Amino acid sequence: MTLHRLGFIFLLYIAFSIAFLTLNARGNWDFVLSFRGTKLIGITMVAISISCATVLFQTISQNRILTPSIMGFDSLYILLQTMMVFFLGGFGFASLPQEIPFFLNFTIMMLASLALFGTLLGRSANQARQDLHRLLLTGIIFGVFFRSITSFIQRVIDPNDFVIAAASTFADFNTINTDLLLIASLMMIIALAALWHYRHELDVIALGKETATNLGIPYKTRLYTLLVIIALLISISTALVGPVAFFGLLVSNLAYQIIPSYHHAYLLPAASLIAASILIGGQVILEHLIGLSTPLSIVVECLGGLTFLLLIIRGTTR
Amino acid sequence: MIRLSSVSHQIDGAKILSNISANIPKGQVTALIGPNGAGKSTLLSLIARLQGLEQGSISIDDLDVVTTPSDELARKLAILTQSNSITARLRVRELVAFGRFPHHKGRPNHKDLERIEEAIEQFDLGDLADKFLDEVSGGQRQKAFVAMAYAQDTDYLLLDEPLNNLDMASARNLMRNLTELAAQTGKTIVIVLHEINYAALYANWIMVLKQGQLIANGPAKEILTPQIIADTFGIEVTIHEIDGKTLVMHYG
Ligand SMILES: Nc1ncnc2c1ncn2[C@@H]1O[C@H](COP(=O)(O)OP(=O)(O)OP(=O)(O)O)[C@@H](O)[C@H]1O
Ligand SMILES: [Mg+2]
Hints:
Chain A is mainly alpha-helical. Chain A has helices at about 1-20, 30-60, 75-95, 100-120, 125-155, 160-165, 180-195, 200-205, 210-215, 220-240, 245-260, 265-290, 295-315.
């Protein structure tokens, strides 16, 4: 049954992709296909990054309403980006190879998440669970804090500089940063290979620190490795389209609902394909069928936000 | 043999265990007894490397628990903790199956599946195997966790109050199974018990903790004396020998 459902989501993704590539295409097919194909790859990469990062984060925190974005990961990315523009000036920043800010942001985000989790690690299971609420609040507060500093800097910065920096504070699935596509896809292959390697251990890690340790997982080492992978995936998605707050929550919880299994070997692909189908299908429907100009990011964030509310009201914290 | 030497443990400056040195013999059922808060669970979790060892050393058959790789230890020793809080939504069979993880690392073979079914049978979970853990009773849940530790099939089995929530017959069956397991397969079983007559009836060896100190450690017959029990729990008891079995009695 699990495989059937996974197959169905995959077909859905393929169908939307074909529609995305071909619908209302006029003129030079080579151009259309390569233009839309690049976009399709970019959106798919963002979908995979966001959903894998979210599922991973929920697995290690044993909590299904936390996401890296709610914890302020991508706000930190944007803040760092904006600060670089501030210090280097718009022109200085623009003349940097884009890989440099990407890796710098990734490194800082990784260190920040290791520091945050490191303080919670030594503690017993009971305390850790209580601390989860503190963790959630801390993350939300940091997120708001990072965003306010960002918007403050953007105000004092020369407006032209800001445009050059292209450090948008909201996601835009229409303008994918194609300069970074190559390096981002390389990094993503590494991250996904690592995840696939750890897929069985992830099932055990979801049982919590004590059980996982009893079953032979070097818990601390794995946790740190996974945090590095999460930071990398969030860096990729933020660099490509910008910060997405609630979308990960929507797709991870859809995956838990649709896939009747605790196996990450199914959950990770399912969440990724659901995310990609929503983004690409949403794009097709909004652009071609309804002809609406509402950005897709607003629609998915809205749905994600509703999921967040629903989960909190239902009290589903596991 | 489990070898503890000069093991001490502190949490936030409070002394939880002070300088414990003891050997727990191989192939026997050892009961770990002592008042609430004595440090029994802490000691077990240190032996099972669930908490970091700060002072002293612990080894299991000459494997040092700090330096031995975690997955190697997982094939040597299994622990059932006192409070099992798994937030994932699992069926009973899935939980029991996790006990085999150290052996198959995610790809269960024929032997693993057999062992899982055997564990399910052993603890009367057959009818419940496809239910979710949050759909069974507290005692049934407890049995599932014991079955998981059993399925891990390690030479050493540490059980922290496994009789919690079990009815009279289930508790007796579990204790019988464990003693048989030790006698027939040479497994070493360390079990935290509060009901002292279970210790008297089933344990070969008894270890007594009080306020983080080791009060006594030795063959069951030598430990179960009115003096040691009065020192440990502060209650007067008499010890009786009935049909060759030891019975500890107190009078209201
Ligand atoms: N996380 C913690 N923080 C502070 N103190 C703790 C913590 N965990 C345990 N303790 C203290 O350590 C001491 C030993 O606790 P432990 O759980 O080992 O006792 P126990 O012998 O297993 O008791 P019980 O029979 O009630 O299970 C207790 O005094 C307890 O208050
Ligand atoms: Mg205890």
